[in-house]
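Issue: ligand-bound run for guanosine-5'-diphosphate - logging full I/O for the record.

Environment: standard queue, default settings, no custom constraints.

Inputs:
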Amino acid sequence: MVKAVVGANWGDEGKGKITDMLAAKADIVVRFQGGANAGHTIVNNYGKFALHTLPSGVFYSHVTSVIGNGVALNIPILAKEIKSITDRNVPAPKIRVSNRAQMVMPYHILFDQYEEERLGGHSFGSTKSGIAPFYSDKYAKIGFQVNELYDEEALKDKLHRVCEVKNILLEHLYHKPLINPDELFEEMMQWREMIDPYVCDTAAFLNQALAEGKEILLEGQLGSMKDPDHGIYPMVTSSPTLAGYGAVGAGVPPYEIKTIVTVSKAYSSAVGAGAFVSEIFGDEAEELRRRGGDGGEYGATTGRPRRVGWYDCVASRYGCRVQGTTDVAFTVLDVLGYLDEIPVCVAYDIDGEITEEFPTTGLLEKAKPVIEKLPGWKCDIRGIRKYEDLPENCRNYIEFIEKKIGYPITMISNGPGRDDIIYRD
Ligand code: GDP
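Outputs:
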């Protein structure tokens, strides 16, 4: 059986925590898209960790962690991440890396930086991890799969061919130093040593695991709004963030994905540029940012302050729909305990027309939030384990949102820890 954990919104919904929690009962956790550009924050018995490439199951010794073929694999970063957790006494995780995963090249990271510099005020707010140039090359068919590290002659040849094109851009468009393909080849031979213990045909491994009745968790990165097709294009990421892509990026049959847990945070936050209808500013935003998440709404990878806003029912309903949600995990609810009244965005006003349908980007940029205010509960709800024990106003907030989005909220997260969870049937 395959279960997916994905985001309804702009990312940072708390997928890491939910995956870490669900991994207690899983055999395998798989990353199927994205790269080291976003991070998951996990708090457990070993401490607090920011993961970028490793799946959120690495802290359990019974879990095998898989980096699927759909991932943008940065080998030195993965090696560093493995070391950073084993250095802190986490038992060495069982890791498998797809021999079909493609590798983020040093020039992808450089092109990401140079292009953002070139765009100036029109930049995407990229994390500069090389993700967009990486996926461009993958689909332009000039990317490098992990298995290519094992055919030295062919690799050298291809590196020369690809670098020729890259160097033309470096010289004439960006006016930056050129790449030496022979040096790059030597660097890649070091990558081979780092990755060799983990490489295998992960799709075959996962299909075998399914045949044996194992439980697989697919861990998505970012959220629906950042999907290149269904999100706020072009302010999106460069690989699909939807559960459906899990079948491709992991290599499992689509019909095996039985449960799709879509994670949605009790208020909104976003990093990078792009329309964000329910965004708030000034002191109101600063207070929510400071109190938000676990230690404030600042990016796990970049440390950048996140943009924050009220819960957006329009975006979340759409975000849940495009994921194919079976269950919603509603997270970070404890943070809202300080508010007398909680504003919620229930519809958009686009040129005077009120709609609950999520529009395409041009219209989204014109949308103004239609806000409804719900009474706050004015207390700390951390530590509560039963739904009935939540304050009435808190239950009303959950039920109001559940009705608006139209998908069942079956889990409520009221703290960053593994046990801070309330199940609801
Ligand atoms: P992800 O990318 O979706 O995994 O989200 P992040 O890990 O970037 O952001 C979620 C942040 O919220 C992390 O700092 C988590 O430790 C924290 N977090 C997750 N669930 C809860 C919760 O229910 N309450 C609080 N206060 N923090 C939470």
